[in-house]
Design brief:
single chain; little secondary structure; elongated
């Protein structure tokens, strides 16, 4: 599972909802995605 920084590296700021390159990731839903990074303030919820 990717870490937060790995997912952020995929962001295309020219796109919206989802902010991903549609040629590289066609049909990607606008949704939340899991990462291996625990939530800020609560490492027990990882």
């Amino acid at each position: 599972m990717p870490h937060r920084t790995q997912l952020i590296s995929l962001v295309d700021s020219q796109q919206i909802s989802p902010a991903l390159d549609p040629r590289a990731f066609p049909g990607t839903p606008s949704a939340y995605f899991w990462s291996a990074t625990p939530p800020a303030g609560s490492s027990s919820n990882a």
